[in-house]
Design a protein that fits this description.
It is a single chain. This protein is of the alpha/beta class. It has two domains: about 150 residues, Aspartate Aminotransferase, domain 1 (Alpha-Beta Complex); about 250 residues, Type I PLP-dependent aspartate aminotransferase-like (Major domain) (Aspartate Aminotransferase, domain 2, 3-Layer(aba) Sandwich). α11 runs parallel beside α13. The chain starts with 17 loop residues before the first helix and ends with a helix. It contains 13 helices and 17 strands. A hairpin with a 4-residue loop joins β16 and β17.
Length: about 425
């Protein structure tokens, strides 16, 4: 996802990175620009160069930058109460939980600070259910190859990509991987694991794999997974961290698959850029009791108040329709570009406003190279692996802004070709 750490700083970068590089851990390979402010789908760097932001904090800034509704929510909540302990009732937390439950298949919500924490909570919930309800001694959770579920020890173990796990062993036991969208392989894995005695507690999948290359879930695959889970009393967990909160044109990614999970997680776009994560589940698997799980900052009045305003925007007339329309416009434009550059581009895929442009495997051109080329012309994109360029603009993006992004991409690919 990050550029190579050997990238040279641009000679004209006006922001002095000396102290930054001295005091901040080098866990990111940073592009040589320093962003200072934004409005809508645009951001500016320290030199006042304007960029069209099709990264949105990696599918996070739902309403873009400096949106009036977000400013109003932030201002009103910070003036009243920003943080108290979960030892007390927090009205904005209750209001947000009610909205999420009424607009999903869930019955209960738990709030934390990030997608990794939400997924960690889902893993804990599934394990407790396995122990207390099903009597499994060593429960196993099946996840998918090329998945991404977070950076904690449990969630990088759940992540089916060895590059994220390197040098962090010993990893957390209890995870097995199976190919995404491959029902025959999953059924074989289930049969092998449960050959003598039931072991599988949950199947944990992304409705659309984001970091794994923007790969949408196959409806037939997920419906069969749901059927298998029902037959075997296995919990179905869906990671909605990247695709939830309207990103796909539906409020939740699972709505594109015509199924309901037992547990699902949300973060990123839920707070529109304010850190918040949510673990949501049906009452049938809500086995947590006081003391089982907690979060100091999770569900505080500030984060919940802002997130509720973001959620309410999803209900505004035409909001999700714009996500669908702009997503279709973007995919059609990318497909037209793919036809212009058949030697470079292998495939275009996505839902709503999360889309991927896959470069051909046999060529040397990488997603980082494309990202750098369009950045020079004022467009911010982000890789989703070495060969996939990801497009995740704010959900308020306009028709003109999509056209502008496509024009910049076309020009950049012409120079690269």
């Amino acid at each position: 996802m990050s550029p190579d750490t050997t990238l040279d700083q641009a000679a004209t970068l006006s922001y002095d990175t000396t102290s930054f590089d001295q005091y901040v851990m080098k866990t990111y390979g940073r592009f040589p620009i320093a962003l200072t402010h934004g409005e809508g789908c645009r951001v500016w760097d320290a030199q006042e160069k304007e960029y069209l932001d099709f990264v949105a904090g990696i599918a996070t800034c739902t309403l873009g930058h400096a949106h009036p509704k977000l400013i109003e929510a932030v201002t009103e909540q910070i003036k009243t109460l920003h943080h108290v302990s979960n030892l007390y009732y927090i009205p904005p937390q209750g209001a947000l939980a009610e909205w999420l439950v009424k607009h999903s298949c869930a019955d209960r919500a738990f709030f934390c600070n990030s997608g990794a924490e939400a997924n960690e909570g889902a893993i804990k919930l599934a394990r407790k259910y396995a122990h207390t309800v099903r009597g499994l001694e060593n429960p196993i959770i099946i996840t998918a190859h090329a998945s991404f579920h977070g950076r904690t020890l449990a969630t990088i173990t759940a992540t089916g990509q060895p590059k994220y796990q390197k040098n962090f062993n010993p990893l957390v036991p209890g995870f097995v991987y199976s190919p995404y969208n491959d029902i025959e392989a999953l059924e074989a894995t289930l049969a092998e694991l449960d050959a003598e005695t039931p072991q599988v507690a949950a199947i944990m999948l992304e409705a659309l794999q984001g970091e794994g290359g923007v790969r949408p879930g196959d409806k037939d695959f997920f419906q069969r997974v749901r059927q298998l889970c029902d037959e075997k009393d296995i919990l179905l967990i869906l990671d909605e961290v990247q695709v939830g909160a309207g990103r796909t044109g539906q409020i939740w990614g699972y709505e594109n698959l015509d199924i309901e999970p037992d547990i699902f997680t949300s973060a990123k776009g839920l707070g529109g850029g304010i850190p918040i994560g949510a673990l949501l589940c049906k009452s049938s698997c809500d086995v947590f009791e006081p003391g089982d799980h907690a979060s100091t900052f999770g569900g505080n009045p500030f984060a919940c108040g802002v997130a509720l305003s973001v959620c309410q925007m999803l209900e505004e007339p035409g909001f999700l329709a714009n996500v669908c329309d702009r997503g279709q416009q973007l995919r059609q434009g990318l497909q037209a570009i793919a036809a212009e550059f058949p030697g470079l581009i292998a495939e275009v895929r996505g839902w709503g406003l999360i889309n991927g442009l896959e470069l051909k495997a046999e060529i040397e051109l990488t997603s980082i190279a494309v990202v750098k080329a369009v950045m020079e012309q004022g467009l911010l994109l982000v890789p989703a692996g070495p060969k996939v360029v990801r497009f995740v603009p704010p959900l308020i993006v306009s028709e003109a802004e999509v056209d502008r992004a496509l024009g910049i991409l076309r020009t950049a690919l012409s120079s690269l070709a």
